[in-house]
Amino acid sequence: MTAGLETMDDPMIGVDIGGTKIAAATVDGRGGIVQAVVRPTPSADGPDAVLAAVADAIRTLTGHERAPGIGVGTGGVIDHDRGIVVAANDLLPGWAGTDVRRQLAERFGKPVAVDNDVNAFGLAEQRFGAGVGHRDVLYVSVGTGVGGALVLGGELHRGVHHTAGELGHLAVPEAVGRLCNCGRPDHLEAVASGPAISRRYTELGGERLDLRAVADRAQTGEPLAIAVITDGARALGRALAGLVNTIDVSRVVVGGGVADMGQRYWRPLTEAFADELQPGPGAIRPVPAALGSRSAVIGAASLLNTHAPPSSVDEGYS
């Protein structure tokens, strides 16, 4: 039997490393989570502390010793072939350059695969969620940032420089003059991410609130809250339509915390998307992700499955 999510007896380990929390889980061959743990990310203490926390989380999973391998999804630009973080933002200080694969493989003595967390999200949705049955899909995650993953011909497409799908750094007119998390202006993330929407609410005269509170205000009909959510959603919808016009996928799947705001968000998103779409793909509309907050760990575990997109990642473990 090839190493992978083949049976309930030997579930893979999936890990999602974020700026505030680390989630680790054992995942069976149908994408079901057998057991999961969550730990705070000691990001301020540096990469060694983060990897120690990851290892501790894995060791708390019952039967982790029997798992054929470990898959890791994390923020940043990831060289998937080598398992190294090429670049990362300030949510994980000093994370760039970290050899995640080597360090975890040395700790556990088993294969480790590493990829960008949105690629992991896309892989999970492709195998078990909203992308099932589609071979060309654009996946989008909208939360503290805006990230994307691209599946073409049924396989995860990472690109020559490991940045395929990174739509958050598209220059868009709605973001002119606004700084992105990467430090440069005019990017989609600076207007469509959760922090960007809540920050805009404050700038236009509202209280200093997080996105959930702004969304609650919108549900009560408050005009300012509705306006800033609408603006962020429309900016994303226009950008997504432009990408679909360019790469011609059959489905667009949107997930992340921002996408959970309901029809106050989805209506302007889909309307703006439809307005920008060319006649060829005119029937396509963005659909919500199906797996929720579980997607990243499920997709991370799937990185080591030789029967799932991308094709075999077994090479280079030795």
From TrEMBL:
Keyword Transferase: yes
Gene Ontology MF term list: kinase activity
PROSITE patterns named in the record: ROK
UniProt superkingdom: Bacteria
Protein keywords: Kinase, Transferase
InterPro entries the UniProt entry points to: ATPase_NBD, ROK, ROK_cs
Pfam family, one: ROK
Protein family membership: Belongs to the ROK (NagC/XylR) family.
Protein name: Glucokinase
Source organism (scientific name): Stackebrandtia endophytica
Record lineage: Bacteria, Bacillati, Actinomycetota, Actinomycetes, Glycomycetales
